[in-house]
Amino acid sequence: QVQIVESGGGLVQPGGSLTLSCAASGLEEDSYGIGWFRQAPGKEREGVAFTSNTDRSTFYRDSVKDRFTISLDSYGNTAYLQMNSLKPEDTAIYYCTWGLGVRVGITDEGEFDYWGQGTQVTVSS
After folding, report:
1. Cβ distance 47 to 57 under 8 Å?
2. Mean pLDDT by 10 residues, the chain (125 residues)
């Protein structure tokens, strides 16, 4: 049974940093796309950052480029989202997701198979 577990959310002041973690277990195939999505109150869920456990290329939405970094551990089963220079508009529930065979650049959440429960990130003074 596949499990996706996120951690690392919390309250941070504007300009601060947080690192989210996403541990995947029970995956049986080798090639997955990994994505971080977020959903702010009253808004639709949006893709933030993407990578894959094959070539480890990355893709970011414009509003987080140069501030957020997605990465994988050496085993390829734990993903991270390093978030720097956080802004109040980054406040949202952040979700990690894994999709079998999803290529980097695919941002449609319907393409992803397994989702975590979400972790709250609040940026406020």
Report:
1. no
2. 95 98 91 96 96 94 97 94 98 97 90 96 97
